[in-house]
Design a protein that fits this description.
The protein is mostly helical. It has eight helices and no strands. It starts with 7 loop residues before the first helix and ends with a helix.
Length: 199
């Protein structure tokens, strides 16, 4: 693969995503273990930022995989765009709730859960298709394996959400987000190391 297919921003987006997911984890733990009544908006902001950054990272992976698996690469990009759209709507809704109060959240919380479910499914499919594409590239299979880590975490959350309700599934972020954050960092540094080795 030529170095022109290696976009330096793909690694940066994943490193940024990993940092924000770890910040989200710290705030979730602080909210759970501390007596201080921390608003859910505080951990939500770094989570949304981190997930959005990972989606942009997925979109930037497109040039790397399109030569080896063009159809899979297009599918991954399409799912990433769907995930980004639904996540943007979730972020907009959280902002509206923070401005207009909890009554708005109670009235339309079901729609928010639907948007989150769409986001999770789209993210799972996007990571899945990109993982398949990278596993086909012998020189970059490590990236493919790392992409399956957040995929597995979201799949667990989705399955629990289907069985016991989306709220129960989403509550697993307390445990899954640190793993996802570490995986994002590993993906970012692996992509960076691969690019440096080819430069």
């Amino acid at each position: 693969m030529s170095t022109s297919n290696a976009n330096p921003r793909d690694s940066r987006f994943f490193i940024i995503a990993g940092c924000f997911m770890l910040i989200n984890t710290l705030l979730l733990w602080l909210r759970h273990y501390s007596d201080y009544q921390l608003s859910i908006v505080w951990p939500a902001v770094p989570a949304i930022t981190g997930l959005a950054s990972s989606v942009f990272g997925l979109l930037k992976l497109y040039p790397r995989v399109t030569i080896h698996a063009p159809l899979v690469a297009k599918s991954g990009a399409a799912f990433a765009l769907l995930a980004l759209t639904s996540l943007s709507l979730v972020a907009l809704w959280i902002f509206i709730v923070s401005v207009f109060g909890e009554d708005m959240q109670k009235q339309q919380s079901q729609w928010l859960l639907v948007l989150i479910a769409i986001f999770m499914v789209a993210m799972i499919l996007s990571f899945f298709t990109n993982a398949i594409a990278f596993l086909r590239i012998s020189a970059q299979q490590k990236v493919g394996y790392l992409l399956t880590v957040p995929l597995a975490m979201w799949f667990i959350m989705l399955v629990i959400g289907v069985i016991k309700g989306m709220e129960r599934g989403l509550s697993l972020d307390f445990y899954t987000n640190p793993v996802i954050g570490a995986a994002f960092l590993a993906i970012g540094f692996t992509l960076k190391a691969y690019r440096n080795s080819k430069s």
